[in-house]
Write a structure and sequence with these properties.
267 residues; alpha+beta; 11 helices; 55% helix; elongated
């Protein structure tokens, strides 16, 4: 408690005074929320480090931490609920609604993933929205699920234009902004990717190739290991499994546009 500024101490004490039944562990947890956001507020170079008088800045910080995967939606929601009970604010109310929805969505997908035994196309696509998914796994799953690629297609250069390679395409009206990722395959097929998360991953990628297959003897084993990192299944989920699953699903549900996309050449 002592590491908190006096104004922030008084704020959390006000909350504890209203709820004398809180256990010491719960109080300790709530104090840690205040310490975390006080530190982040200090890093913003604010003229004031008082949490209660910097609600909009606190919300901006939380949005950034969530976007950069440094803070989970449930953590943010719990802190905002706590703060709103002692410092009601319309911006906090809106933020609580936002992070409550994100938290509910996270647990809905997590339950689906944890409980499922049979791998389905909807389950695989739900992984793309899973907040625990790494950026590289997002790119891997995105390519496999949207384009039905083979293992050779996944050896992708992002620092040069040899073999299969990717480069960033600027917007026509503003060359300083990125419109898409262009993915050029050896077979002269070109794929245009407009997913913002995919674009951001390529912008921030530092290695010469997009995927590092490491100790795996073949790329299929690597693909299976990444899917099974998130899924509770005994299935061997390789590129062939994913492709066949997609084809069967799209034919069964008459989704012929998506079926054609698995083989379509894009300009």
């Amino acid at each position: 408690m002592e590491s908190l500024f006096i104004e922030n101490q008084n704020l959390i004490k006000q909350y504890f005074k209203q709820r004398e039944y809180l256990s010491p562990n719960t109080q300790k947890k709530y104090i840690s929320y205040f310490k975390k956001f006080q530190t982040l507020l200090e890093d913003e170079n604010n003229t004031s480090n008082v949490i209660g008088s910097n609600i909009e800045t606190i919300i901006k910080i939380a949005n950034r931490e969530y976007t950069n995967k440094r803070m989970k939606s449930e953590y943010i929601k719990q802190f905002f609920l706590l703060l709103n009970r002692i410092n009601k604010n319309i911006f906090l109310s809106d933020a609580i609604e936002k992070y409550s929805k994100l938290t509910n969505h996270y647990y809905t997908i997590k339950r689906q993933i944890d409980n499922m035994g049979i791998v389905s196309v909807p389950i695989l696509f739900s992984l793309l929205k899973y907040s625990e998914l790494t950026d590289n796994d997002y790119c891997l799953f995105f390519l496999l699920l949207n384009y039905g690629l083979d293992t050779d297609d996944l050896i992708i250069n992002v620092k040069n234009d040899s073999g299969n390679y990717m480069y960033l395409q600027s917007q026509k009206k503003d060359k300083n902004k990125i419109a898409s990722v262009k993915y050029i395959l050896n077979n002269k097929r070109t794929i245009t990717i407009k997913s913002q998360r995919f674009i951001d991953t390529i912008i921030n990628h530092t290695e010469p190739t997009l995927f590092d297959f490491g100790e795996y003897e073949n790329i299929s084993d690597y693909i299976n290991s990444r899917f099974n990192h998130y899924l509770n299944t005994d299935e061997y989920i390789c590129e062939i499994f994913v492709y066949n699953l997609l084809v069967d699903y799209y034919i069964k549900h008459s989704k012929y546009t998506k079926l054609a996309k698995l083989k379509k050449t894009e300009d």
